[in-house]
């Protein structure tokens, strides 16, 4: 699969930083990943996206790590 570096991801989002900031809400992460919020929550509870998620209320996602996990 794709091996994309964090530097490449940051560069790709440099112009969309207002729409997709470095720390994403559940809604933003769902939109970015093309998953519904409920599907994304289920995947997190199943152990997916372990590097990119901060569990708790509210759920938060590290944008760059989330993209990296999706791409691999």
> What does the average pLDDT come to?
91
What is the percentage of strand-forming residues?
5-15%
Annotation field: number of helices: 4
**Helix and strand composition category:** mainly alpha
Radius of gyration: 12 Å
| Number of DSSP E strands | 3
Give the fraction of residues assigned to helices: 40-55%
- The global form is globular
List low-pLDDT spans: none
For the terminal residues, how far apart are their CA atoms?
A: 5 Å
Order of helices and strands: HEHHEEH
Largest sheet: 3 strands, antiparallel
> What strand line-up does the widest sheet have?
1-3-2
Provide the domain count: 1
Summarize the structure.
The chain has about 70 residues and is mainly alpha-helical.
Describe this structure in words.
This protein is mainly alpha-helical. The chain has one domain (6-71). The chain has helices at 6-12, 26-33, 37-45, 63-71, and strands spanning 23-24, 53-54, 60-62. A 3-stranded antiparallel beta sheet has the order 1-3-2. Strand 2 (53-54) and strand 3 form a beta hairpin. The chain is globular. The mean pLDDT is 91.
